[in-house]
Amino acid sequence: MSEFSISELPKGASVHMIGIGGISMSALASMLVHLGYTVSGSDMRKSEMTDELEAKGVKITIGQRAENICSPDLVCYTAAISDDNPEMLAARRAGIPCVERAELLGAIMELYERPIAVAGTHGKTTTTSMLALVLLAADTDPTIMVGGELPQIGGNIRIGGRDFLPFEACEYVESFLHFKPYLSIITNVEEDHLDYFSGLTHIISSFRKFARLTSQFGCIIVCSDDKNACEVVQNVDKKVLKYGINDKNADYLAKNIEFDDRGCASFEVFCGEKKLLKVKLNVPGRHNVLNALAVTAAADFLKIDMRYVGEGLAQFGGTKRRFEHIGEIGGCEIIDDYAHHPTEICATISCAKAMGRKQVWVVFQPHTYSRTKALLDDFAKALAIADRVMICDVYPAREKYDGTIHSCDLAIKIPGAVYMNDMNAAERYIADNVGEGDMLITMGAGDVWKIGYDLAGKNERD
Questions:
Q1: Domains of the chain
Q2: pLDDT tens digits, 241-262
Q3: Is 125 known to be catalytic?
Q4: Is residue 292 within 8 Å of 313, Cβ to Cβ?
Q5: What is the pTM of this model?
Q6: Choosing from 124, 126, 128, 442, which is the catalytic residue?
Q7: Taking each helix axis from N to C terminus, what angle separates 124-137 and 286-301, rounded to the nearest 10 degrees?
Q8: 165 - beta bridge partners?
């Protein structure tokens, strides 16, 4: 990995960011502005994120063109930017240093005492958000970077002090290997991003490299209910703390778990024989018990008083696009969820089914052709838990269609599922057929959320 250091970029230097409107890039741009750098950037479309950056003095250009590169001191780009991007080509022709987003973030972490990296195939945004609220409750003035929009901080970033920095560490293209955290959390490890990784063995190896980057003065917090996560930390010469529900030998264990009629859990956390606290969550699902346990373990290691842990966890009501209530139509509640991996889909639909709705409807938009193809049978099995399923066209993101997989291939595998190649048609069908007491979940990492917003008579900014 590159040895780029933030000391190479003097205060006041200019940084141009390609893809600045993304959730992670926009947060990094805000941090750079706060640190005294001059920031510009480009994206393919205007958004709420770009509007907010412009209000902070960032020069935003819509559309990516070579002429946007006006002799900056550094160019930062996302992993999704291709080598033939016109701005990338122009920057390299001009000999301007170029760094990937994670590399620059890793360099900025040199300025913080205790960066806290949250990694894992699932649960990164929720766990980071929970931890952020605990640190806020404890009045530690954290700087926070979340891969979603957290209402309590008014977005995806909070600029605070230089002590605590909780953030998400994504494994895609091994971006997280640019980080040297004080404390690392690994929620779970599964097959994903198979357009980059060759398989599970490669993924576990990558996570192990990440774990070894943790400070010798900190620790690694890992879910011991997840066998792959446990395999990651084998033979890693760092302090390891384990949490779980099923593993009775875990350092942090949830006991006496009860769920209310919304599917939200109450439980007690034990460290050995010692009861640390009782937790009442305001987000549904058993998976969130594990996320809260990870946060409790981290807070205990950081010597945060348990009363602030309980307070922070109770304040968490979710982030945007994570089982988010949008509205209703004809007595049917509309939920939007970012789930785009079979395990996430299974957890979300199972949570909805446990709420006792008459019927759970899911409109699913697969995310990337490679993921859909590699995990096709797992997607079908997870989606089949719902009562009614509609499959939209694949959201390609960074990929191009190669003709080897189609949404129809997924719909055929799910009994009673319907393929919809037109979102407007999907909206009309839902409006005509959902009933009182049903729940509709728009699901996926693309733009499927628009269906729920349209049906609820809302726009993106409501």
A1: 6-101 (3.40.50.720), 112-315 (3.40.1190.10), 324-455 (3.90.190.20)
A2: 999 999 999 999 999 999 998 8
A3: yes
A4: yes
A5: 0.86
A6: 124
A7: 50
A8: 115
